[in-house]
Design goal:
Distance between the termini: 191 Å
Radius of gyration: 60 Å
Number of helices: 3
Strand content: 35-45%
Shape: rod-shaped
Helix content: under 10%
Number of strands: 46
């Protein structure tokens, strides 16, 4: 007998008599050869198998798989699953269904494989993998039941060993146990499917051979071997796998002040829970959202199993050189994957916009000077290369495009301060004879007055002179902006110099208090004539004199001599009366 040969033709009969007979005949043969089993060829990771392409009639295991026979454990009495090595191979039983109840065997159950024990021997299903380059390898599979015909509960679990010798070790995964209903004794439909996943211990890291063994054991209940449940596995995944969507990232020529972004998607399958990292590449940064934040590297937490994350890559050249590199994505217990990235930097022009202001709202237009020359200005109050002040903080921008097509801009703010709000006193009327007085009633206080008759904040009517005078109040605020307002002061004259201003004097051309003066007519009483005096270029009545004999006073202003007549005293000397015939008067 050679290692790897199939030791049992039929599993319907116990192999023990044959083995003891062989032992008796060939006593010198090593026991190791008597209990030989085939070690399947380790499969590279990541490994995926769902048995969907394995024909129901197949008798050959997929690459990396093998069925073994071995001893049973004593789960129901607390001893647990069998950990000892197998003692021989089991062929793959084709076309098996829930109705198939042969002794210990590995059944081909049409898209799934199932190890089925009997009362004396167990059936093991083994997969060998090569974990070289991997750490914290995650194993995931679906466990299910195909046959149920009693209340017996079977457990199925996963074990491992490194290499091809020695006992197996429990992975600590929660065992799968079959339901006890509904009864199914035909067909291959799965019942009570449960997913199981476990990360292999450190001992399995970076090993040329790691054997994974699925083993069953009775948990509870009793029944004949023919009525044992049939359990199966499918959808096996060993080792994480990372893939990156799309091809290489090519940004082309990009100006040094631009920040274009492209993206790719990381897809993880059967990952462990270690973080997924994205390596640094000069000129590039990464984010999980297009708006950032962007960082030179990424260290992404993820829950294990399946994972998907879109990664945004921003190109930010700083010099006129090529930026070609390789982005490496690692983690999750998978092998590293890479993506090429390339771009070319173009120098953007260095642009300045100058500094202006602050100015006041009434300032003259400002000439704007940008560098290099030949660009364009934009912003509130900008026309061509001039800025017309308007109150507020105005943002203006100078934009320039260089010969290589790269555009850059520079902005500056011009603070335009509003003019202070100023109010003046109301219009006033004063007499030219009034004393100098303090000007008041302005807002805000602290400004200055100017105009005729103004000095040190005072107004002197006598200095201003008669007439209406416009007075200006000017105020400058703390930032140097000035505003002003005006108001009128009307100075009434005292034409007759009697101390009473014309606006209050009933007879401004007559001195106040003249005897025999009629203030209603502003003339001397009847029979009196006025003395007229030049005061300031004005004819002013300064006295009233009774008309002398031979004169009459028709208007109270002048006296007129009577000719060929006499003054009629009865008429108040307001007219002359002719002498009667035969009489004359030599004294008029």
């Amino acid at each position: 007998m050679t290692k790897g040969s199939t030791m049992y033709v039929s599993r319907q009969h116990s192999p023990w008599p044959v083995l003891f007979l062989l032992a008796a005949l060939f006593g010198a043969v090593s026991p190791a050869l008597l209990w030989a089993q085939t070690n399947p060829t380790p499969q590279a990771l990541p490994y995926r198998q769902d048995f969907s392409t394995l024909p129901h009639s197949a008798t050959a295991y997929p690459a990396g798989w093998q069925g073994w026979t071995g001893g049973i454990g004593s789960h129901s009495t607390g001893g647990g699953f069998q950990l000892a090595p197998g003692i021989g191979d089991l062929a793959l039983t084709p076309n098996a269904t829930a109705a198939t109840t042969a002794g210990e065997a590995v059944y081909n159950l049409n898209g799934k494989l199932g190890p089925r024990k009997n009362t004396s021997f167990n059936a093991y299903l083994v997969l060998a993998v090569n974990t070289t380059g991997y750490s914290d390898v995650r194993v995931e599979y679906d466990a299910m039941t195909v046959r149920i015909n009693s209340e017996r509960v079977m457990g199925l679990t996963l074990q491992y060993r490194v290499g091809t010798t020695g006992n197996f070790t429990a992975t600590g995964i929660t065992e799968y146990q079959n339901p006890t209903s509904p009864t199914q004794i035909s067909g291959t439909d799965p019942i009570g499917t449960g997913n199981r996943a476990v990360v292999l211990p450190i001992a399995c890291n970076n090993q040329a051979v790691v054997q994974l063994r699925w083993v069953t054991q009775t948990v509870s209940g009793t029944s004949s071997a023919a009525n044992h449940p049939t359990l199966a596995i499918d959808n096996i995944k060993v080792g994480g796998e990372l893939t990156l969507s799309g091809g290489a990232l090519n940004f082309g020529a990009v100006c040094t002040n631009a920040t274009p972004a492209q993206s790719f998607t990381i897809t993880g399958d059967n990952l462990n829970t270690s973080n997924v990292t994205v390596s640094a590449v000069s000129g590039y940064s990464y984010a999980t959202a297009i708006d950032g934040p962007y960082t030179p590297t990424l260290n992404l937490g993820q829950p294990g199993g399946n994972y998907a994350q879109q990664i945004w890559v921003r190109f930010t050249p700083t010099a006129e050189v090529d930026y070609n590199g390789t982005i490496t994505v690692a983690g999750g217990g998978a092998l590293d994957v890479t993506k090429s990235v390339s771009g070319n930097g173009l120098l953007a022009p260095v642009v300045t916009s100058g500094t202006y202001g602050p100015v006041c709202d009434d300032a003259a237009d400002i000439d704007l000077v940008g560098s290099p020359s030949g660009g364009t200005w934009s912003g509130t109050g900008v026309t061509g290369d001039q800025f017309s002040p308007s109150a507020g903080t105005q943002l203006i921008t100078y934009t320039f495009t260089g010969g290589n097509g790269c555009t850059n801009s520079a902005s500056t703010t011009i603070t335009v301060n509003p003019l202070p709000t100023v109010s003046c006193p109301g219009a006033q009327s004063v007499c030219i004879n009034d004393a100098s007085f303090v000007l008041s009633g302005e807002s805000p206080s602290g400004g200055t007055y100017s105009g005729a008759g103004v000095g040190d904040g005072n107004f002197d009517p006598g200095v201003a002179g008669a007439g209406t005078h416009t007075i200006t109040y000017s105020y400058t605020d703390g930032v140097g902006c000035s505003n002003s307002c005006t108001f009128d002061i009307t100075v009434a004259d005292d034409t007759d110099g009697d101390g009473i201003c014309d606006d209050e004097d009933d007879c401004p051309l007559a001195v106040n208090g003249i005897a025999d003066f009629n203030e209603n007519t502003c003339a001397c009483e009847l029979g009196y004539f006025a003395t007229i005096t030049d005061i300031g270029g004005n004819d002013v009545i300064t006295a009233c004199t009774i008309c002398p004999a031979g004169f009459f006073c028709p208007d109270g202003l002048v006296s007129v001599p009577c000719a060929a007549g006499f003054a009629n005293a009865s008429t108040g000397q307001t007219q002359c009366t002719a002498c009667p015939p035969g009489s004359f008067s030599d004294i008029v």
